[in-house]
């Protein structure tokens, strides 16, 4: 839990959240931060709020205390996005202060009423709406629907050129320091995986909307990006925007990299996986290997999101695909990680069936993946089968190398 003044009259409040699954689903090995902002004009506005993940209001109130903020003076609650990681504090807040106005988009207003009732005055804003807080603090609003819910908007403080971006330009991880400028460029780049994982797990499905949001940002002067999760971007602003642009573009293709995703019950498929992995290693191409169900969905999705090539290795199980592989592929399909180059192999006992289910999933989510010839073998892989897996892996690597990166 920490606070800092990020600009004259603008405070940031941050709490670190650990040991939970984000959205009840995504593992966060290094946790996540929740950032809130207070803008002190003649009127005081809170932009997005923070409280303990379990809705414990004391966390927020302690932060207010540490800033000597009299909550009764808060006039506006600016809600960039109503998802409860940013709005869960409202319910307890209402118990200590009720005389405020809510500022959000029309979709936000609808969500506000369904989560928090209709007792408050809601000030609906659109693209270009302005709110003058007095004393040199002017807020503009820019809608960015579906980054990440339909209600999402950016708030822009005109004089400090600060963009309060909520989920946009966010990242997983908790950090010793709060500002990008306190880290070296190399250190910032070492946090890339936290950005990639946050993006692919939470925002990725909405990538076309992210690209539209970035276009809108191109039209404004930005001195700092103050997101709802992760570091304050008071430097490397172009870098984080380009990072988001390239991650959005990955939805349609990924980088020159291969993800080898595999599962095996008794080691039959695994023997061939070792051959494919050795080929990947020797080739010098960038690659990641993930076993299902051992690797988390979050890590697998991140790897596939950023990979142009995907090798899927799994046996047949009850006339279908090895179940954890099917589950993770369904999730990849829902996130619309499209247009990959693929190669599939695996063992079966008597009938096969894994391939059929793979085809069904690809079709169901219109994934538009292009596969080279799959290879299935009965029981233990013969030397001939291992040689085919080796040759096909080489072929996939060559195809991926010929592709332009999505970025
Ligand atoms: C629970 C279970 C269900 C299976 N169902 C099928 C099946 O429906 N059709 C088939 O051809 N083989 C089936 N098999 C056989 C496996 O595909 C076969 O044993 C394969 O060699 C396993 O490869 P692995 O060691 O890489 O898991 C099944 C095996 C198990 C243990
Ligand atoms: Fe969100
Ligand atoms: Fe969020």
Structural overview:
- By secondary structure, the chain is an alpha/beta fold.
- It has 2 domains: 2-250, Metallo-beta-lactamase, Chain A (4-Layer Sandwich), CATH 3.60.15.10; 258-398, Rossmann fold, CATH 3.40.50.
- Helix content is 35%, strand content 26%.
- The protein has helices at 57-66, 84-87, 90-96, 106-116, 185-190, 192-203, 207-218, 237-249, 268-283, 297-305, 323-334, 354-364, 383-402, and strands spanning 2-7, 10-17, 32-40, 44-47, 74-78, 101-104, 121-124, 130-134, 137-143, 153-157, 162-166, 224-227, 255-262, 286-291, 307-313, 316-317, 320-321, 341-348, 370-371, 375-378.
- The strands form 4 sheets. The protein has a 7-stranded mixed sheet with strand order 1-2-3-4-5-6-7.
- β4 (44-47), α1 and β5 form a beta-alpha-beta unit.
- The chain is elongated.
- The model has no long low-confidence stretch (mean pLDDT 95).
- The chain binds flavin mononucleotide and fe (ii) ion (FE2) (2 copies).
- One fe (ii) ion is lined by residues 83, 85-86, 167, 228-229.
Write the layout of secondary structure elements.
Layout (H helix, E strand, L loop, with lengths): L1 E6 L2 E8 L14 E9 L3 E4 L9 H10 L7 E5 L5 H4 L2 H7 L4 E4 L1 H11 L4 E4 L5 E5 L2 E7 L9 E5 L4 E5 L18 H6 L1 H12 L3 H12 L5 E4 L9 H13 L5 E8 L5 H16 L2 E6 L5 H9 L1 E7 L2 E2 L2 E2 L1 H12 L6 E8 L5 H11 L5 E2 L3 E4 L4 H20 L5
Parallel strand pairs: 4-5, 5-6, 6-7, 11-12, 13-14, 13-15, 15-18, 18-19, 18-20
Antiparallel strand pairs: 1-2, 2-3, 3-4, 8-9, 9-10, 10-11, 16-17
Helix pairs in contact: 6-8, 6-10, 7-8, 9-13, 11-12
The protein binds flavin mononucleotide and fe (ii) ion (FE2) (2 copies).
């Amino acid at each position: 839990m920490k606070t800092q003044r990020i600009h004259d009259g603008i405070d940031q409040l941050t709490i670190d959240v650990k040991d939970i699954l984000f959205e009840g689903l995504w593992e966060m090995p290094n946790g996540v931060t929740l950032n809130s902002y207070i803008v002190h004009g003649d009127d005081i506005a809170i932009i997005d709020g923070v409280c303990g993940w379990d809705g414990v209001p004391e966390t927020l109130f302690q932060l207010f205390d540490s800033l000597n903020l009299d909550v009764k003076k808060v006039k506006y609650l600016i809600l960039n996005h109503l998802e409860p990681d940013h709005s869960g504090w409202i319910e307890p807040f209402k118990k200590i202060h009720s005389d405020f106005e809510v500022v959000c988009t029309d979709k936000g207003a609808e969500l506000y009423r369904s989560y928090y009732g209709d007792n408050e005055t809601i000030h609906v804003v659109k693209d270009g709406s302005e709110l003058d807080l007095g004393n040199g603090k002017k807020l503009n609003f820019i809608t960015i629907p579906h980054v990440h819910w339909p209600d999402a908007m950016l708030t822009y403080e005109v004089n400090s050129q600060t963009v309060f971006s909520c989920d946009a330009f966010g990242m997983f991880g908790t950090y010793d320091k709060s500002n990008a400028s306190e880290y070296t460029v190399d250190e910032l780049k070492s946090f890339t995986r936290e950005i990639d994982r946050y993006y692919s797990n939470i925002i990725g499905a909405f990538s076309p909307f992210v690209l539209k949001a970035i276009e809108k940002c191109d039209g404004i002067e930005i001195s700092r990006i103050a997101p709802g999760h992760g570091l304050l971007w008071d430097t490397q602003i172009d870098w984080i925007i380009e990072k988001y642009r390239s991650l959005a573009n990955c939805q349609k293709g990924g980088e020159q990299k291969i993800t080898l995703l595999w599962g095996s019950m008794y080691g039959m498929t695994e023997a061939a996986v070792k051959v494919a992995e050795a080929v990947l290693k020797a080739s010098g191409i960038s690659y990641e290997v993930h076993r299902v169900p051992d690797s988390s969905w979050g890590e697998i999705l991140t790897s596939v999101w950023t990979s142009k090539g995907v090798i899927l290795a799994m046996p047949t199980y009850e006339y279908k695909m090895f179940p954890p592989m099917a589950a993770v592929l369904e999730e990849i399909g829902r996130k619309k990680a499209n247009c990959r180059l693929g190669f599939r192999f695996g063992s079966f006992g008597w009938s096969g069936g894994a391939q059929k289910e793979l085809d069904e999933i690809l079709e169901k989510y219109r994934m538009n993946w292009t596969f080279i010839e799959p290879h299935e073998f009965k029981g233990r892989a013969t030397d001939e089968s291992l040689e085919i897996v080796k040759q096909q892996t080489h072929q996939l690597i060559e195809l991926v190398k010929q592709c332009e990166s999505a970025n």
